[in-house]
Specification:
By secondary structure, this protein is of the alpha+beta class. The chain has eleven helices and twelve strands. Strands 1, 2, 3, 4, 5, 6, 7 and 12 form an eight-stranded mixed sheet that branches. The longest helix has 23 residues, at 221-243. It starts with 5 loop residues before the first strand and ends with a strand. The mean pLDDT is 95.
């Protein structure tokens, strides 16, 4: 069987509230809730036929690997995520797999989860498989966590597969997704007012994650309170968005960010603190870190978006566009 030419793309996301609660053991013990939205920055995976062997190319990382076959796709520190994808969903023949992502590395926007989804969708299509979005999300999560051995939650894969604005409930191993039907005028207003700023690659370490998880497991009051507060913020965020209450949305962004910082002292880096002070001085309804924190990106619901962008640029932050992706993962192939 010849490998067809296939391209898949999947969007990254903004997490309005509830991030971290999709991560075990909280998602197993208590059940997490995340409200997030897909934005039009995409991870892409392209599969093209080749006479023999497999070539892996990560364009944005400027790395490539040559393999004779899938049996050589062993983890060795070089494009291990792509190798895990090959092991999980082997291509039907020789091929080149090329990946790239619009979002900056370590930006806290769920780019790894989006890439999981793009890879699984593209490789499945190359094998002639048609997967529902939920199946692509689940396979992408299993590829990263079980095959590649990178622990994490499920929100990134699910929003990348589904698109739109979602309320996601996690009670391991189950996921329940509810699309929030927001007024188009509200979506336009959110897109205009949200100022998304990249401060530099996240420095969230495995040690930090371990401290947080161990704190939860030991029943530390501060850690437990922070997790419950973030879940509560997500519950109320879905209501505020559906109601079109931007003032409430902003207040809940702030509430989630305050709770997230109680997880660990390193959640807000000096670069993030400078950015936040500068942007808040222009007047904002609220803001928070995107994703896990400790670097990466922040976003703010601004009263005066132009002033907020000017202030952000003055700190050296990179501004990223905010436009919504309502469709999720897409696959294009040269034949069914």
């Amino acid at each position: 069987m010849n490998c067809p030419t296939v391209t898949a793309r999947a969007p990254v996301r903004l997490d309005f509230a509830g991030g971290w609660t999709d991560v075990p053991p909280f998602s197993r013990d208590e059940g997490g809730v995340v409200v997030n939205a897909a934005i039009a920055l995409h991870a892409r995976a392209h599969v093209a036929p080749r006479d023999h062997g497999i070539r892996l190319v990560a364009e944005d990382l400027h790395e490539s690997v040559e393999l004779r076959d899938v049996r050589e796709a062993r983890a060795d520190g070089r494009l291990d995520l792509l190798k895990a994808a090959l092991r999980m969903t082997p291509p039907p023949g020789g091929c080149t797999v090329t990946t790239a992502c619009d979002a900056p590395p370590g930006g806290g926007l769920g780019s790894s989860g989006a890439m999981d989804v793009a890879l699984m969708a593209a490789l499945a299509a190359a094998r002639g498989e048609r997967l529902a979005p939920a199946a692509v999300a689940e396979r992408g999560w299993r590829m990263e966590t079980e095959e590649a051995g990178i622990a994490g939650g499920k929100q990134d894969q699910w929003i990348a597969a589904l698109g739109g604005v979602q309320r996601l409930e996690f009670r391991d191993p189950d996921v329940r997704a509810t699309a929030l039907a927001l007024d188009p005028a509200l979506l336009d207003e959110l897109g205009r007012r949200l100022v998304l700023c990249y401060t530099g690659r996240s420095r969230l370490s495995g040690t930090t994650i371990t401290r947080v998880v161990e704190g939860w497991t030991r029943g530390e009051a501060a850690i437990r309170g922070a997790f419950l507060a973030m879940r509560d913020a997500a519950e109320r965020m879905s209501e505020a968005l559906v109601a079109g209450d931007l003032a409430r949305v902003g207040a809940l962004l702030d509430a989630n960010w305050a709770a997230q910082q109680r997880l660990d002292a390193g959640m807000c880096t000096p670069e993030m603190a400078r950015l936040e002070a500068a942007v808040r001085a222009t007047g904002v309804l609220g803001g928070k870190a995107a994703g896990s924190g400790a670097g990466g990106s922040m976003f703010f619901l601004a009263r005066d978006p132009a002033a907020a962008r000017t202030a952000a640029r003055a700190t050296g932050a990179m501004l990223l566009p905010v436009a919504w992706d309502m469709t999720g993962v897409r696959v294009e192939a040269d034949h069914p």
